[in-house]
Amino acid sequence: MNPATKNLYTQYNPWLLLIITLGITMVGFQFIGAFIGIAFALFAYPGDFQSFFPALLDPTSDELMRSPLLIMQGIGSFIGFIFLPWLLMKYIYKGGLSELTIRVTSPNLLMLSIFIVLFFMGFNAPFIEWNQNISLPESFAGIEDKLRALEDTLAKTTIFITKFDSTSQLILGVIVVAIIPGIGEEFVFRGLVQNHIYRISKNIHVAIWVGAFLFSLFHLQFYGLIPRMFLGVMFGYLYYFSGNIIYPMIAHFFNNGFTLIMLYLYQQNIVDFNIEETDVLPWPQVIFATGITILLFFIFQKHAKKVITDEQLG
Fold this sequence. Notes:
The chain contains ten helices and no strands. It is an all-alpha fold. Helix 3 (66-92) packs parallel to helix 6, helix 4 packs antiparallel against helix 8 and helix 6 (167-201) packs across helix 7 (204-217).
């Protein structure tokens, strides 16, 4: 049976599981992980001990805080999205990672996952631009000001931690921004949250879209909510079509890692294309990218169905 539509952990109410999973992840990332991350970042800070805590209050104003800030984020993400959810699954839900995947991982499907991500970027580009420029009604001006201020703070932090001074910092960035989120966020939002919502709704499409919305909402970026939700939907269908959590993990890793490396190459003046600019693709290219994405999804679904059938027969 496809793990994406299998009723896991049926001894518990799915609403309770959904709340526990999201709660554990939030507490692990925002509090436990953050506290442990600060302890490790302290030792990675090249300045003196007395300078660290003032710098922690405004890390983007101190160039020495780039690596410590990456370490803090990486540890917080690892604890919140991987370690605590794994403990939850193993000791509370009494399940294992094997329940989220079929045994066979096809190299062809791995390559298709990567190409889907590449062309999906073209499809998503106009939504990124539209969402960034959205304006709320005047009656919500106060809320919009707060959302813009939060967005500016998060954007400032993102720009700071992705402006690498060395290759070693780039490697650390790939681990923190691509590898840990690729594994952890897919484990939580596709492997656990999506399954809980499927048990509640009895509809895989509802589960994929609601799970993707929660995935996007979790990032606390209103002006990136829609394109990130579409990204989550893409990951959700990769999981549903294949029954293998490995494919959305690889796709997520490639999406973040490719963006990070292209940004680094642009910063080093090796390429003249800034991947963070959302208005660089003309509409014919967006339409072409959308068509290729849909075609690749059909090919992926057809091949994945054969892989699942072969495993069941074997």
